[in-house]
Amino acid sequence: MFEVAIIGGGPAGGSAAIFTAKAGKKTVVIDSNQGVTKRAMLWNHYGVEEITGPNLVETGLNQARKFGAEVVESKVTSIVKADEGFTITTENGEFEAKHIILATGFLTDLAESIGLATKPGTEPRVKTIFDVDAAGKTNVEGIWAAGTCAGVSVHTIITAGDGAKVAINVISELNGERYVDHDVLK
């Protein structure tokens, strides 16, 4: 069983995976390869002069892999509450996880099947978002949401930051105390 399953491998999901995997949490990223970032050209991402969306996503997922995250390309077809956590069914198999972070961008079609509350989106072209609290929690215990699907701006720098924030909140809950990740120069 995975401690954290992240559905969506764009900036929010990839960033969340970097933090959860680096914190030693058994992490899987399930990505359907449908993200809008894969069609983007970025000149406004802090710390990077310019980068294509596909390169940004690839770099982020490679960072997550470096810390031990498993990355699977598949589409999630259902999420079902299990005795301990959730069973996530994809087109290519099943995964079990204690916590789920939804980082699905514009896609909220999983909401109805698991009973997640939604509300109208505020970003252009984003019709529906998951209804989350300030920590990223949804109304279903153990399911969190980050990035555009949680109502933050579609800009990659913002969705990546939101993914990191939600991951830190999940790690903190798993650890039973506030988690902080700071590396220092040696």
From TrEMBL:
Top-level taxon of the source organism: Bacteria
Pfam families, per database record: Pyr_redox_2
Annotated ranges, domain FAD/NAD(P)-binding: 3-109
Swiss-Prot/TrEMBL keywords: Flavoprotein, Oxidoreductase
GO molecular function, one term: oxidoreductase activity
Requisite cofactors: FAD
InterPro entries from the UniProt entry: FAD/NAD-bd_sf, FAD/NAD-binding_dom, Ferredoxin-NADP_redctase_2
Keyword Zinc-finger in record: no
Record bears the keyword Cell inner membrane: no
Assembly and interaction partners: Homodimer.
Protein name as annotated: FAD-binding protein
Organism whose genome encodes this protein: Ureibacillus endophyticus
